[in-house]
Structure formats: structure tokens, C-alpha cells
Amino acid sequence: MAFQWQDLPLALLIGIGATAVMDAWLVLLQRLGVPTLNFAFIGRWVGHLLRGQFAHAAIAEAAPIRGEKAWGWLTHYAVGVGFAMVLVAIQGTDWVRSPTLLPALALGIGTVAAPLLVMQPAMGAGFAASRTPTPLRNCLRSLANHTVFGFGLYLSALAIGLVSR
Hints:
The structure is a single chain. This protein is an all-alpha fold. The chain has one domain (5-163). The chain has helices at residues 8-31, 39-50, 68-91, 93-97, 101-110, 113-122, 135-163.
């Protein structure tokens, strides 16, 4: 099924809501002392990407980019909206009116491929965080974060469905 542009407002709301749920989870983890991603590094990566550099040996050591924190947060939410667009394209607006957990959770879990196979290698951490001191722990954290994103997709669609009735 293809994405219908008239569904863009729904996908925007679902993506923003799901990303906010994930962010609330990350704040909880930080308060519990669990290290989480510095979104400035995503912005730094995007800034260098716009200048033609895709991969880095270590993104923390790359030259800072003006506004990198804002770029990181903007990218984080744009990607969340993009994944919501995929979900709405696959499931259709009927799913948004009456959401079920499994499609949202499956898509959320599937999105873990983005950090493990694209972002981490491009930022110098290797495929599936293989160049970090604790690759398995980092992969499991990514999986947990993206599972929470999947729950966020469901909860956001559920909220939209309730409000639109």
C-alpha cells in the first residue's frame, strides 16, 4: 500500500507522539543513571552529511556543527514521523481509527535496524555497536528504546482514535 498524502496530518501526530513517548522513556533512563544518546551527535552527523561526509571514525571527535543539538532533535522527530508514515501507509487509516498493538510494535522493533545498521556504523560505533565496549548491552538498549517507540506509535494512534470519535 502507498502512503496517501491526505494521511500526512495523522502520520505527523502519530510520529511526534511516538517520538515523545520514546523521549519520556529516555528521560526516565537518564534519571535512573542509564546513559542515553546525545542528540547533538546526531545533529553533528547530519551537519557533516550535508557537507558530503557520511561516515566518521568517532562522531564525538568530529568537528562540532553550528546548531548541532537542534539539528539532532529535528532529525530525531523527522525520522519518527517518517516511520509513522510507513506504518500508516502499510496499515491504512482504518488502523488509525481502531489501532491494534501488534503492527505498531512490530514496526517499532523493526526500526532498530536504523541505528544498528546505519547510524552506529556511520558514527564510528560499528555495526550493531561492535566497536563499543559493551556491544550487546548497547544493542539491547537500542532494542528496548525502539520497542518503546512502537508502543508510542500505538498509544498515539489510540489517542487520535479516541479524540476523533
